[in-house]
Design a protein that fits this description.
With about 350 residues, this protein is α/β, with parallel strands linked by helices. The chain has 13 helices and twelve strands. The structure holds L-homoserine.
């Protein structure tokens, strides 16, 4: 089955997705009868291209690698100058699915939320790795998708392509989730790991995380816990039926922790971890993000470096823990593929 896909944003995640679709085209077709056709891309920095027959992804990736504009894609019928505003593109291009891959604005969720609403209203499924719309407007967007008989899918918003939403919606379906807790920010886990294992001071470890590209553009989003807050809100609202807003989450970051705190905890048989937690009590949800001393026997204590992990406390299965990448070009690109395939599987039924 063929799907026409438009990409809004073509940064790291978009390029990761294009690489996967290019490399796995035959496999996806043979194994799943899934034939994605990328028909349009628009990106503020990289320009825009439309090709209703489907872009040659090798050529697109080559342009991007050479630092050229998408507008230089050869042989298209409609030559575009500059950048097409996503809201215009959504109207102009025929597609079954929009992948919304622009940057996260956790305060307003914009402009991504407007793009998503427009796409759903015009009959397109939406997949996104953008935390803003998912954290601030999950219910509204899910409802809008339902009203338009389309899907709004967000696997990449938490733990990149590690299957958090697919796990709960499919594998654990039938369980009641009583609590979700875990490590949802790779930068802070990397910093805490470096302080303990490599004897680095907090500032040195943060600098290294920035050099390696793990931290957000403004690292306070990581070290003050805001990134983890956005993710725990998404989990609460998407998986536990909550209506929590980011400002309702009790939050403490790790910027006050020093190497001595981390080493003392370790001596006593504990590890400091920035734990995001959402808990159901008397049908009420409470959420928090704060450093906690975790006993070494807890699976979360063994999660080191940039890895993320979540433990689901369920009524039928007890505790189930999943560990994996929380970020990365291919890993987040895969999250988009996993949502595209989920749409495909449901369309086939
Ligand atoms: N800065 C984030 C992290 C990236 O460190 O986990 C993934 O959302």
């Amino acid at each position: 089955m063929e799907y026409r896909i438009m990409l809004i944003g073509c940064g790291t995640v978009g390029q990761g997705l294009l690489e996967i679709l290019e490399q796995k085209a035959d496999y996806l077709n043979d194994r799943f009868d899934f034939e994605p056709r990328v028909v349009a891309i628009t990106d503020k920095l990289k320009g825009s291209v439309i090709c209703q027959e489907g872009l040659n992804l090798k050529s697109v990736l080559k342009l991007l690698e050479e630092g050229k504009a998408l507008n230089d894609y050869p042989g298209v019928r409609e030559k575009i100058t500059g950048f097409i505003e996503p809201l215009d593109l959504i109207e102009r291009v025929e597609a079954e699915i929009m992948a919304e891959l622009t940057y996260t604005d956790i305060k307003t969720g914009e402009p991504a939320t407007s793009y998503i609403k427009k796409a759903l209203r015009s009959g397109k499924h939406v997949v996104t790795s953008n935390k803003g719309p998912a954290a601030l407007h999950f219910r509204e967007l899910k409802e809008l998708a339902r009203a338009n008989q389309r899907q709004f899918r967000i696997e990449g918003t938490v733990m990149s392509g590690t299957p958090v939403f697919h796990l709960v919606e499919n594998g654990l379906a039938g369980n009641e989730i009583k609590e979700i807790k875990g490590i949802l920010n790779g930068t802070t886990n990397f910093i805490l790991s470096k302080m303990e294992l490599d004897n680095l001071e907090y500032d040195e470890a943060l600098k290294l995380a920035q050099e390696l590209g793990y931290a957000e553009a403004d690292p306070s989003a990581d070290v003050e816990g805001l990134d983890a807050v956005a993710k725990v809100v998404i989990l609460a609202n998407a998986l536990m039926g909550g209506k929590i807003r980011p400002e309702e989450v009790k939050r403490q970051g790790i910027s006050h922790l020093r190497k001595t705190n981390v080493l003392e905890a370790r001596k006593a048989g504990f590890r400091y971890k920035l734990i995001a937690r959402v808990k159901k009590e008397d049908n009420r949800l409470t959420a928090s993000v704060a450093p906690e001393m975790i006993p070494l026997s807890d699976p979360l204590a063994g999660v080191m470096g940039t890895q993320n992990a979540l433990t689901f406390d369920t009524d039928l299965m007890g505790q189930v823990t999943i560990q994996g990448a929380g970020a990365g070009k291919i890993e987040t690109g895969f999250s988009i593929l996993s949502d595209l395939l989920a749409i495909h599987h449901s369309e086939k039924i």
